[in-house]
User: Fold TetR/AcrR family transcriptional regulator C-terminal domain-containing protein from Microtetraspora malaysiensis.
Amino acid sequence: MDEEPPPYLRIVTELRRRIATGRLRPGDRVPSTRQITREWNVAMATATKALATLQQEGLVRPVPGVGTVVADAGTGAAPSRRPAPELSEERIVRAAIAIADAEGLATLTMRRIATSLGTSVMALYRYVSGRDELVTLMADRVLADGWLPEPQPPGWRACLEWSARRQWALYRRHPWLAQAVSFTRPMATPQAMAQGEWGMRAVDGLGLDPVTMVHIYVTVANYVHGTAAHLEAEAEAVQQTGTTDDEWLESTVLPQMGEFPLLSRIPPDSLDLNTLFEFGLQRLLDGVATLIASVRAGSDTDVDRSH
Assistant:
């Protein structure tokens, strides 16, 4: 009796078939490692080996920011004959971001990155010391995309709104980012420092001491971070179930709300995460406005007493 082929070869055979029959066309994304683990009930290492085999055969190729796609028709094994682009810290960081965006931070390993770049694990260590440093570099690179305008918008509130919404947009674009950012052990990276300085400048000149200024910025940033903390888990749930947040709300939550008079009066779109974020942000900034007003009132009282 013939022995059953190893699991990774069964996956390779099936994906070859899909490519040959046109079910997967040139440029189409092939299943990610996470999708392969779910579809074939295999370990992540097996999924990674299957994609690596297809890449070695020239059937698929990694595309930073997209994932692994079917190679152009007729290229055969040509990709492996072309000299690979030179490795650099920037290439490694961008590849790692693409993997984390598509598959989650938990799947990010040095071996997974090496496979996507068509190189060895040891080659990566010439540019980064390990996964922890790499994740820090990834976060700093992503934060660089959240540019902050110069000159700042007029008024402290407009500045803090801009900063908070830019951070929120980054967390939504990169759900893993909230897991990489810590407020108990903050990152001492150029972008993190620049954003903190920008936020403190928003409330400078209002009579606040530096400690209060940094507390205001960190409180707002931590609110955004806390709201985004479960975005990666929610993105994973959507991938695993195929059910969007709105569909889950309609099928699971809304039917139960009808039994409660007050809850049943809530429009479904008011539970949208962006709506909740904006509501909380405005109430938080209302509190900051009260603090600033009280500090100014205290300063005016001190001036009156001096006369």
User: Anything to note?
Assistant: The two ends are 103 Å apart (CA to CA).
